[in-house]
Amino acid sequence: MSNLKGKGMDARTLHEMKMTAYHRAVLRRMCSNPDLKRRVVQHLEDLMHRQPDMAPVWEAWCALLDRPEAEAVADLQADSVEGKRLRMVSPVTAVLYPAERAMVWRCVGWLIFLHHYLAAAADLGLDLEEQAAILGLDGAEIGTWSHAPPERMAEERLHGLRQVITVRHILTILKPVLSERRQWLETVNPDWEASPLALLCRGEGAVVCDHLARQVGPRLRAADLPRC
Q: Residue 199, Cβ neighbours under 10 Å: how many?
């Protein structure tokens, strides 16, 4: 597995991201699986009797389950005492079957990967039109990902996401100043007779990634390399 921690992301931030992605994935599963929601509600009722001192948390979870998915996710993501408490004290894991748990964690990996893509696209200043050209998708659809991420994506569509993440990662090493990264993307390379951004937008991102890999190779430190 590649290093999901990413440049500049500390362990606490990564843990929070995983917990948020985990509960987003679970809430989505409950919307399509009434039996899972029934088990969670039943477990909450049991917890009310066994741990009455935690009643405010269990009641908050009961209220959360009755809300639309988008609102429930927003509550879970909230950077507040209530949001953190909901994430830390969850009734969900205990009722998941092994296959459900594996499916949820696959979804967590995807959501974290998508988070890295969105962060990279923002860092590089890619607008929706540019992202649409790079990914071969509709810009309006991409614009919904921050609040309504897709559950999955065809393998052939993932190349563009990986390329954007790779370009951003290497450029943060070669060009630590944010504005310089966008300037580099827009500057025509004489050897290509086009800018790196133009190549990315016409499906030739591999050329850009290979070029950057050769440039950064001598400057890589152990901390910059993926961990397995």
A: 21
In a 10 Å sphere around its CB, with 0-12 CB exposed, 13-18 middle and 19+ buried, how is residue 205 labelled?
buried
Spatial neighbors of 124 by CB under 8 A, at least 6 apart, are 164, 167, 168, 171, 181, 182, 185
Angle at 158 between CA 130 and CA 110, to 5 degrees: 110
Residue-wise over 21-38: b if at least 16 C-beta within 10 A, else e? bbbbbbbbbbeeeeebbe
Q: Where are the domains of the chain?
A: 11-96, 113-224
Reference 119, options 3, 10, 6, 13; nearest CA is 6
List, for the chain, all residue ranges whose pLDDT scores fall below the cut of 70: 1-14, 218-228
For CA atoms 33, 28, 13, 216, give the dihedral sign: positive
Phi, psi of 194 (to 5 degrees): -165, 165
The tens digit of pLDDT for each residue in 52-62 reads 999 999 999 99
The answer to whether the beta carbons of residues 172 and 178 sit under 8 Å apart is no
Report pTM: 0.76
The answer for residues whose C-beta is within 8 angstroms of residue 128's C-beta and 6 or more apart is 139, 140, 142, 143
Q: State pLDDT tens for residues 20-46.
A: 788 888 888 888 888 999 999 999 999
